[in-house]
Each structure stands twice: as C-alpha cells, then as structure tokens.
Amino acid sequence: MAIGSRRSRAALCGAWLVCAGVAAILLSGCAGAPGSVPDTVSTAVKDSSSAVATARLALGLDADGKLTMAATATTLDDSLKELETARTTLLQLSPTVQNDRDLRREALAVLDEGTSGLTTARDAVASTDGSPTLQDGDRLLEAAAGRMSAFTAQLGGQ
Amino acid sequence: MKRLLGVALGVLTAIGGFVDIGDLVTNAVVGSRFGLSLVWVVATGVVGICVFANMSGRVAAASGRATFEVIRERLGPRAGLANLAASFLINLMTVTAELGGIALALQLASSVQYLLWVPVAVVAVWLVIWRVRFSIMENVTGLLGLTLIVFAVALFLLKPDWGSLGAQVLAPSIPEQETAASYWYYAVALFGAAMTPYEVFFFSSGAVEEGWSIKDLAQSRINVLVGFPLGGLLSVSIAACAAVVLLPAGIAVTSLSQVILPVAEAAGKVGLAFVLVGIVAATFGAALETTLSSGYTLAQFFGWSWGKFRRPAQAARFHLSMIICLLIGGAVLATGVDPVLVTEYSVVFSAIALPLTYLPILIVANDPQYMGEHVNGRPVNMVAMIYLVIILAASLAAIPLMIVTGAGS
Amino acid sequence: MKTARQPKYLRTPGRTLDAQLHLLDRQVLDVDGVPVTTVDDIEISAPPPETPIPAGTPAPTLTALLTGPVLGTRIFGGRPPSSRLIRIPWRDVADVGVVIRLGVRGEPLDADWVERWIRDKIIARIPGGRHDPR
After folding, report:
1. Domain range enclosing B232
2. ipTM of the shown complex
C-alpha cells in the first residue's frame, strides 16, 4: 500500500502544518497586530463611527415603526459594546510622543461623546415616561458622528 | 404527483438548509465593506460544493458506506487520524458558532439576554438529536429556513440601482477604503463559508441514515444542482442588502443586529419577523447538522455503532460524544466570547481544512472497489481536480492573509 | 451493484488475504450487521522475539483481531502488555470482504465493553434512551 503510506505521510505533514498555523495565529492574535498609534486610533474611530451610524439607522427605523423594541434595544447594546471595545483598545496604547498622546486624548473625547449619545438613545427606547425622546438621542448621535468624521478627515490629512 | 411533491420538498429543503451563521455573517460583512465585488467567490464556492456533495452522496449510495468510514480504510490510520483531528476541531468551532447564532437571533426577537439563551439552545439542539426522526428534522428546519427569502424580497423592495449592482458583480474592484490583503482574506473566508467541510460528512452519512441506494441518486442530484445554487443566490441577496443599505451609511457589520436592519428598512416589522424565524431555523438546522457531523466523524473513524436510525442505547458512544460536543460549545459561549468573532474564525479555519476533507472523497469516488461502475467520470474528475487546486490555494493563503490583515480588521 | 473483477491472486483456491489491505482498519460488523469496532491491529502467534527458531516450526497463525489502545501504539510506536489487549478471536470471524463480519453477536464481546459501559451508565439513564426512532 505504497500509495497509501505516501499519501498518509503527505496528509500527516498537512496536519502538522495546520497545527503550526493555528499556533502562529493564536500567537499573532495575542500579540496584536503591531500598528503605529495613529493607525490604531484611526481604526478605533472608524469602528466607532460605524457603531454610531448603526445606532442612528436603528433609531430612524424605530421612529418609523419598522423595528420592534427588542431589536432596537439589542442593536443599541451591540453598538455600545463596539464603542467599549474601541475605547479599551485606545486605553491599551502607550504613546511615547506628545503628538500621539494628544491624538489619543482627542480620540477618547470623541468616543465619549458617542457613548453618551448611545446611552441617551438606549434610555429613550426603554423609557416609559417619554423622556429622553428618540430625537434627543439622535441629536447627540448626529453631533458625535460629525465630530468623528471631522476627526477622521483630520487624521487622514496628517 | 406524490413524486413531484417529494422532489419539491427535497429542493426546498436544500435551499433553506444552505445558509448557516457563517454564510449570514460573512456575506453581510462582505456586502457592507466590499459591496458586491466578491460575489464571484460565492459562485465558485457553490459550484464546488455541488460537485463534492454530489460525489459524497454517490459514494454513500454506491458503497453503502459513509465518507469517514472509507477515509481510514483507504488512507490508513495516520492520515485518517490527522484528518479526524482537524475536521473534529473545526466542526466543534462551527457548532459553537451556530449555537451562538441561535442565541443571538433569539435575543433579537425577545430582548432577553443572549447568555440566557445559550443553555436553551444547547438543550433544544440535543433534544431534537435525541428524539426527532432524521427526515422530519431535515424537512422542518429546511422549510422554515426558506423564510430567509425575505432578504431577496427586501432587496427588491429597496429599489436599488440594479445597474450599479450588476457592475459591481461583473467587474469587481477593491473599494478604496479597503486593502487588497483584506479583499483576498474575505475571499478565502467567503469560500470557506460556502464550501463548509461538515456538509460533505453530513450529506454522505445522511444518505446512509435514509438508506439511499443508486436509484435515489437522481433525486439527490436534483436537490443539489437546483437547491444549492438557489441557496447561493440567497447568500448573495444577504450581501446585496448589506451593500445597498449599510455600505453607503458607513456601517461595517460586526454583529447580527446589523445584518437584519436592511430587511427592517425594506419590509418593516413583518419582514423582521420573517428574517428572525429564518435565522433561528437556519442556525438551528446547521447546529443539528454540525453536531451530528461531529458524532459521525468520530464514530466512523473508530468503528462505533452510529446513526439516528438506531436506538440511542444501541449507539451509546455516538450519542455521548455529541452530548459532550454540545456541552463544550455551550461552555465556550458561556465565557462571553463574541459568537460573531467565533463565526468569522470558523469560516477561515474551514477554508484551511478543506483540502483534508475533499481530497479523500475524490480518492474514494475514483475507487472501483467501493464504487463499482459508479466511479467518477472524466468530466467530473477534471472539475474536481481544478477545484482541488483552488482549495489548496485558498488553504495555503489563509494563514498569511490572516496574519497580515489581523483577521480582517 | 456490479463488483469489480477480483485480481488473479484472489482467484486461487482458498483465500489469500493481505493483512494491511484486507484486515487492518476495516469495519467489523457483528452477525446482525451492527458495527462493533474497526480493526486497529492484529495478533499473530509467533515465537518470542530474539529466540532462535528451530527448523520445522509451524508458521505463525492469526489468532485475533485487536482493538482499543493498540491504535495509539500502532501509530506512535510501542506495545501494550499482552493482558491488556482487547481481542476478537479469529474463530469468531465469519466473512472478510469490504467489511469483516462476525458470526456472533457483538454485545457479549470484550471489544464492546466501552459501548456497554456507556450505555448502561449514561445513555440508558436518560429518558428515551431505549426509544426506537422508527
């Protein structure tokens, strides 16, 4: 069964490759992709503006009566989680240059605006006494989205 | 008339059963970030799975044996064990992802916390495997999964610019905010999502479960050749909905809640109800299939008694191994890991493991000792060889791409 | 299903079997067609290693099919002690083909003890464990 043993050797090699690959991925995942501070900040702000845009879309659909409260609440919770993850990434940075520190401080401020807009929106969806209103939430989110895109444009120019 | 109904049932079940959490998430992510420029990958994947599902069904019908039983006999215990280890681990990852998908969809429907749904999903999947007949299980989840057609309906209701959509499909290009590396990374992921390895094990073992013989092959061929491409179209409509609604809004999909927003925009609460039923049914059906695949691969390698057609007491190790798989999946989810992340990893790992799964089937399908006169014809072999090259390329490229792009971020 | 024509060496009287091709890694079914195990290794009666073999010693014979932990030792090397081997005696084998069929029921066999244990301790305790799905 020469063919079989040749094939089985090849397959065993393949299996070892897979294992080695898995180990490489796990290691690279733990280490985190090494990126400069501006890159990490830019990704974090991009993810956050995606989350804020999602929240605005969901609020709009909810106002039009196209989403159930359960779906809207879940969507807003997911967006909030996304912002939290971005925030944690920023907090884990250790910038060495003053420029980078300013960048991180600004990014955190922009993210915080998004977070407060999201929590207002979440309260609005869950509220029983009519305040805050959905419009309050959307207004804050719109402002946050504006700041985020301005920040991204500024980063892109740098 | 009865035959026609039988054929229709088979096709509809194949369509509804095609989409799983991997397809849902990957297609939505790709649509929201790359538009429709990766649809050609879905088409390639669908053709591939048609070829190999057909082959594995023919192997089971002609030889009466399921795929994994033959892998060990034909390739020896070392290769078989390597194959088993890789397939089993990736299967386990997929089971975890599907269970997570069930829980996420139920959270969207009810606003009850997702973690509370995980044990419900685990127990429900187990109960169906324990008690429900194979054919009933397949038919019910398949037919309910058909409600995912709401994605195609929503696409029409959104009145998109068909011309520009068509241009994206036929003349794919990388959007400017994405890199070439991430484009190809998601091509590999989409390929792995379409050509799921567990499908082949499940298909051939299912053929043995339902007692197929050569005369049932014609029905299975129709199911595969009509059902799977239509299922592929369903996947594309998920991507298209994301491309039409989420891409212009600057939303990159990272959670299941974003996937359903386009349907809600197009069809309101009614559409939402349909899509949630469809997602629960599709992920539940896929959870059943992957859990059973785990059991099948272990039992067939070690020679245990297996099959849902047997009393659980007569297939004790088979059922125990599936219970353990479900418990492991539930435990992993209980740690709070993001199931969408697990899904994204599972499709890429599926792509990495594809050569291990498909090469043995090709070898067995060409072996006259098992197949008699039903060995592969020349045209099938040619297509299968081309696909083997594609599969190897995807598998080898996956890990470097994953490292370079940081898993697609 | 039309079976392939047998190669020449199999058409001689009696049957010539190749251990690797026809026995090892084959599925073992009992007399009712229920799977028992796969053949993980085979046991041959032979003089102990490193002893001189006197002329006229009968040829080694196949005594049993082995299963269980021998799979690990077959792949990775080594040998479990003789008393620990799980055997299916060769006399229980009724037919060797694409699968190996036994002439006895699988249940009382040694090879089935894990299945029996799990069945009695776990599966039978869960309600519906003995329910026939057909």
Report:
1. 2-405
2. 0.88
